[in-house]
């Protein structure tokens, strides 16, 4: 190159560096990535070492840096920056190298679903990586993120339009002006809602960087319209974004028309407890009637796994408990309906339904006598003494019978007997009968004693529990232990048959006849000797 200028132009007005860079085609619609970046960089380096000026282009002309960025040549870009290329030079359309790399290649900065079907998919990630490499290099050289091009776009707005979460996150580190509005009057937050593939991820990245500020009320309305229209499924991200939008401002969250779901109802349906709490703090209308005539309380009781914290939150606001939906059901009616289905996949589900039921009753929810009675029979079969007491205290008929003339005291003897003694005392205080007989002639005590256990360890524990319950029965009615059933079996017959030794002692102490015979002539001793628990005697 002796005697030749490194900046000498040819007949078309291009310098050697420009010729070298332009030899690489701009990638418009191809996934192909040039593998010649290294070769081009070597040639450009030689020219720069021999005095080529990287800033020879005038304003409104694309500089070498812009041309290299546009062609996704990260090594060339780095070399030009090393030799002092003006990172903020504005070329055609007032665009900098940062604008150009964000616009480079129609598909370069976002991953399309149909890439998976493309034979050259492997190049897509390479292009994206090279574009991000260039962005990093430009930002490291203090590239301005707030220069506006001829179309009114900053690099950040372009990155959002191209739906590149990675590019947005990189640009945010340089503190761009998020409030700047482009020609369409959209700022960065507004622009994110126009994205098709990753609007929530981009919006979340923006909010992680900076809250919206004074115009949060207006954006809250836009975001509310967006999540309704788009039917967003990423619950966690929606919840995260909403918490960031409203965390610092006292907004009006009562923006829905009647029979349209309000934000409170929407996030209750999403089971977003933190957002619901925040909306209630902002005076959300807990009585707003949304779609299908349902309030937030109707929706809160639908999913037992999350109903309890939602319910506790809503009930603190003293909502109207007896509003009916289009099916003429109140929240309590829905709970009764769930309870009376008769089966539960897990014990926890039943426990949660009963808790919800008690909370609504304690809060003053109205229920019909029939619903209360059905619920009392259902919970008695599950042995939930706490809920049984609650139902009786709220008006359930303590004398209600099932189809076999069983009272609730006939039905309630399940595996767990915790709370039984307290309930018997309460039941008696309320006028309940302890000696009622069902259609087979069983008293409540006999119904308890005829329940068997299957191993010796459980037998001893069960015996101690039953003995306490037996003593409670005897405290109120000493005759309850001697009443035989229709086959002549007494309580002592059943205790002997099932190996309840401690209970047998209590029954004998209170006057049970060890020589009483049933219809086939067997005494309690016969029952003990033929018991599978004979060895424990």
In short:
By secondary structure, the chain is mainly α. Helices cover 49% and strands 0% of the residues. It folds into 4 domains: 1-176, Alpha Horseshoe (Serine Threonine Protein Phosphatase 5, Tetratricopeptide repeat); 216-347, Ankyrin repeat-containing domain (Serine Threonine Protein Phosphatase 5, Tetratricopeptide repeat, Alpha Horseshoe); 368-433, Serine Threonine Protein Phosphatase 5, Tetratricopeptide repeat, CATH 1.25.40; 441-537, Ankyrin repeat-containing domain (Serine Threonine Protein Phosphatase 5, Tetratricopeptide repeat).
Descriptive overview:
Helix 4 (74-82) packs parallel to helix 6 (121-140). The protein is elongated, with a radius of gyration of 39 Å. The protein has helices at 16-22, 37-49, 64-70, 74-82, 97-103, 121-140, 155-161, 165-172, 188-192, 199-209, 216-230, 235-246, 263-269, 273-281, 296-300, 304-315, 331-339, 347-363, 369-381, 385-393, 408-411, 420-429, 444-449, 456-476, 491-497, 501-509, 524-529. The protein has 537 residues and is an all-alpha fold. Mean pLDDT is 89; it is low at 106-126. The protein is built from 27 helices and no strands. Helix content is 49%, strand content 0%. It folds into four domains: 1-176, Ankyrin repeat-containing domain (Serine Threonine Protein Phosphatase 5, Tetratricopeptide repeat, Alpha Horseshoe); 216-347, Alpha Horseshoe (Serine Threonine Protein Phosphatase 5, Tetratricopeptide repeat), CATH 1.25.40.20; 368-433, Serine Threonine Protein Phosphatase 5, Tetratricopeptide repeat; 441-537, Ankyrin repeat-containing domain (Serine Threonine Protein Phosphatase 5, Tetratricopeptide repeat, Alpha Horseshoe).
């Amino acid at each position: 190159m002796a005697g030749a200028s490194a900046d000498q132009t040819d007949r078309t007005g291009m310098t050697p560096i420009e010729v070298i860079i332009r030899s690489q085609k701009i990638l418009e619609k191809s996934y192909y990535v040039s593998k010649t970046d290294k070769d081009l960089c070597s040639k450009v380096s030689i020219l720069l070492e021999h005095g080529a000026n990287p800033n020879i282009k005038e304003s409104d002309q694309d500089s070498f840096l812009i041309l290299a960025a546009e062609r996704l040549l990260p090594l060339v870009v780095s070399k030009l920056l090393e030799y002092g290329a003006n990172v903020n030079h504005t070329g055609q359309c007032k665009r900098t190298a940062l604008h150009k790399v964000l616009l480079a290649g129609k598909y370069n900065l976002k991953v399309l679903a149909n890439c998976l079907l493309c034979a050259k998919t492997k190049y897509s990630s390479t292009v994206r990586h090279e574009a991000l490499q260039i962005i990093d290099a430009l930002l490291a050289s203090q590239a301005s993120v707030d220069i506006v091009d001829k179309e009114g776009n900053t690099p950040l707005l372009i990155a959002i339009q191209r739906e590149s979460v990675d590019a947005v996150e990189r640009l945010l580190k340089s503190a761009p002006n998020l409030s700047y509005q482009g020609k369409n009057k959209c700022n960065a937050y507004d622009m994110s809602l126009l994205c098709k593939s990753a609007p929530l991820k981009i919006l979340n990245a923006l909010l992680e960087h900076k809250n919206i500020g004074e115009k949060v009320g207006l954006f809250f309305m836009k975001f509310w319209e967006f999540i309704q229209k788009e039917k967003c499924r990423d619950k966690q991200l929606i919840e995260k974004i909403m918490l960031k939008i409203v965390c610092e401002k006292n907004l009006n969250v009562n923006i829905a028309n009647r029979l349209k779901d309000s934000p409170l109802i929407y996030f209750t349906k999403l089971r977003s407890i933190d957002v619901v709490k925040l909306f209630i703090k902002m005076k959300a209308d807990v009585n707003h009637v949304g779609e299908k005539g349902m309030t937030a309380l109707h929706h809160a009781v639908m999913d037992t796994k999350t109903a309890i914290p939602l319910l506790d939150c809503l009930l603190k606001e003293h909502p109207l408990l007896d509003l009916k939906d289009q099916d003429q059901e109140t929240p309590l009616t829905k709970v009764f309906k769930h309870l009376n289905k008769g089966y539960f996949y897990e014990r926890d589900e039943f426990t949660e339904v009963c808790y919800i039921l008690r909370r609504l009753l304690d809060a003053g929810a109205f229920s019909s006598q029939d619903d209360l009675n059905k619920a009392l029979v259902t919970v008695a079969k599950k042995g939930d003494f706490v809920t049984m007491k609650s139902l009786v205290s709220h008006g359930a008929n303590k004398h209600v019978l099932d189809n076999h003339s069983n009272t609730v005291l006939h039905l309630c003897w399940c595996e767990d007997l915790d709370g039984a003694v307290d309930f018997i005392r309460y039941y008696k205080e309320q006028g309940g009968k302890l000696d009622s007989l069902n259609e087979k002639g069983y008293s409540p005590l006999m119904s308890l004693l005829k329940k068997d256990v299957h191993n010796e360890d459980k037998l001893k524990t069960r015996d101690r529990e039953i003995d306490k319950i037996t003593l409670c029965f005897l405290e109120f009615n000493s005759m309850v232990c001697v009443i035989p059933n229709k086959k002549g079996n007494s309580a002592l017959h059943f205790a002997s048959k099932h190996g309840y030794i401690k209970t047998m002692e209590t029954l004998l102490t209170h006057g049970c006849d060890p020589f009483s015979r049933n219809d086939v002539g067997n005494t309690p001793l016969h029952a003990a000797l033929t018991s599978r628990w004979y060895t424990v005697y």
